[in-house]
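User: Reviewer 2 asked us to show a designed sequence for the structure in our supplementary figure. I'm pasting the C-alpha cells here. Could you produce the per-position amino acids so we can include them in the response letter?
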C-alpha cells in the first residue's frame, strides 16, 4: 500500500520508540512552514510545534533529543523548561505556564499521520538526521 494514500505521512511508526529520539518534520501549509516534532510516550505518539514557549527557539539543540534524562518530560535544551509529553502543558521552568502547540496526529497501518482539520491541505517534509 502506498503510505501516502493513508493521508499526510510524517514517518513510519517504528521510527518512534517510547522515550526515544523524536522525529523532526516541517509542515508546509500553503507556503507557511512550521517546524514540528513527533515523539512516543507510554506507547502513544504525540506531536508539537518545535518552538519553546519561553523564547521562539527549537526545543532540541541535539536534533531529536526532546526528552529529559528520566524520559518523563519534554525538555527545552536552552533553559530547561519542562513540558508534559501528553498535552504539551508547561510543568516547570521559564515557560511560566505557557504550553507547546499541539499538532494532531494518528497512527494507522504502521505510519504516523497528520490528523484533524487544521493542516488538511498541508504537506510534510520529514527531517532525517
Ligand atoms: S528557550 Fe526554552 S526554556 Fe528558554
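Assistant: Here is a per-position design you can include in the supplement:
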Amino acid at each position: 500500500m502506498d503510505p501516502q494514500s493513508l493521508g499526510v505521512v510524517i514517518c513510519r511508526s517504528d521510527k518512534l520508540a517510547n522515550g526515544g529520539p523524536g522525529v523532526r518534520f516541517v509542515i508546509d501549509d500553503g507556503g507557511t512552514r512550521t517546524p514540528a516534532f513527533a515523539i512516543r510516550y507510554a506507547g502513544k505518539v504525540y506531536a508539537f510545534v518545535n518552538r519553546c514557549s519561553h523564547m521562539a527557539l527549537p526545543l532540541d539543540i541535539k536534533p531529536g533529543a526532546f526528552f529529559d534524562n528520566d524520559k518523563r518530560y519534554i525538555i527545552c535544551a536552552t533553559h530547561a523548561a519542562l513540558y508534559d509529553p501528553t498535552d504539551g502543558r508547561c510543568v516547570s521552568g521559564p515557560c511560566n505556564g505557557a504550553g507547546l502547540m499541539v499538532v494532531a496526529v494518528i497512527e494507522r497501518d504502521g505510519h504516523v499521520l497528520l490528523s484533524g482539520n487544521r493542516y488538511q491541505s498541508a504537506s510534510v517534509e520529514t527531517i532525517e538526521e
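For the response letter, you might also mention the following. The pocket of FE2/S2 (inorganic) cluster is lined by residues 52, 54-55, 57, 76, 78-79, 81, 93-94 (CB under 6 Å). Residues 3-127 form a domain with the Rieske Iron-sulfur Protein fold (CATH 2.102.10.10).
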